[in-house]
Amino acid sequence: MLVREHKFLNFAEARALAKNRLPRGIFEYIDRGTEDEWALKDNRRAFERVKIKPHILKTATTRSTTVNLFGHDYAAPLVVSPTAFAGLVWYRGEVELARAAAEFGIPFCAATEAITSVEEIARATTAPLWFQLYLWNKEEISYNLIDRAWNAGARTILVTVDTPVMPKREFNYRNGFDVPFQLSVRNIVDVALHARWALSVLGRYVLSSGIPNFANYPERYRKNLLKRGTGPSLDLMPDLSWEHMRRLRDHWKGNLIIKGILRQEDAILAKQLGADGIVVSNHGGRNLDSAVSPIEVLSEIANSVGSSITVLADSSIQRGSDVFKLLACGAKAVLVGRSMLYGTAVGGAAGAMQMMKVLRDELGLTMDMSGCRVLSDIDRDLLLCP
Ligand SMILES: Cc1cc2nc3c(=O)[nH]c(=O)nc-3n(C[C@H](O)[C@H](O)[C@H](O)COP(=O)(O)O)c2cc1C
User: Fold this and answer.
1) Residue 85 lies inside a defined structural domain of this protein
2) Cβ of 24 below 6 Å from ligand 1
3) Domain range spanning residue 92?
4) What pLDDT, in 10s, does the model give residues 40-49?
């Protein structure tokens, strides 16, 4: 049943509504890719190229989309992706999204670069919490952060390894979307033109807790989104290596997932290192512009590691049939980013939940149309890949 006030029937409609509501700088930060946006476009083309060869006369009334991940049962094979600044799409957007995930029954992955602390998100949700780690150049501070996540109840961390340097997102430079935000006539007008967002999101933050900041950073390194740095800075680890992953594996007693893998041998190394899972991802087409699309390499990667570790995948999922195709190529579940941000931007927790329902229902429909009763019925034999 659709929530009446959030009348979107699919990803494209939610995106259009979000585009209207959000200042252009924020919308483009979410929506776009990097450089010439080849990876972004190709992610969609790669999904389009893959066709489904459906079974007939196998539809079952008992069809289910449930999945078990790391010992927990979930309503659908969806995980809310970690996304920086998610709290900017709605007042306390990260909390809204986490609540929606808990109510709907899927994991929410909190991000290092969130504007709500992992403790606050944990307090707001009843579901198992995942935490995404960007390793900082001061490793011990990163360990303190994951210890905080552990104490807050997180038992699964996802360490992102596909951002060794900052990508070249030219639209962000033009929009002044950086930390600190660059104030210019253009982006002040942009905010003024989105009065509803200015009042209901930015205005509420300013009146309650002040200008948003990176809440997971230790206090002496924490900057708000407008403040130029005067104190010491905390940057991403410049020479991130397998050695860091080994130390992380020793330190973290919960489930460790490595996010951003696109090659078989890296997947095998992750498994040998003792990782519990991997995410086959090109970061939603936001980092390396000539990167392959996950669906092009997922089957070979999944085959190379077998079922002993949990294979997840993401990037540019817009339909339940995209989810179906990634599951058919060997993913146990998928991560969804932009779709969740757009749902939240349109209606807070209710909008996020509606987007989850849309994707879950479209997946169910694709399963019904293809003669699949449970997720394990979805296999590679159902696909025709170019
Ligand atoms: C606005 C935005 C911010 C993101 N921030 C992070 C981040 O902080 N850490 C991370 O590992 N991935 C980040 N990602 C990548 C997502 O986790 C995920 O890999 C990707 O968005 C999936 O593609 P989709 O958004 O098209 O579903 C971000 C993505 C978006 C759209």
Assistant:
1) yes
2) no
3) 5-170+232-384
4) 999 999 999 9
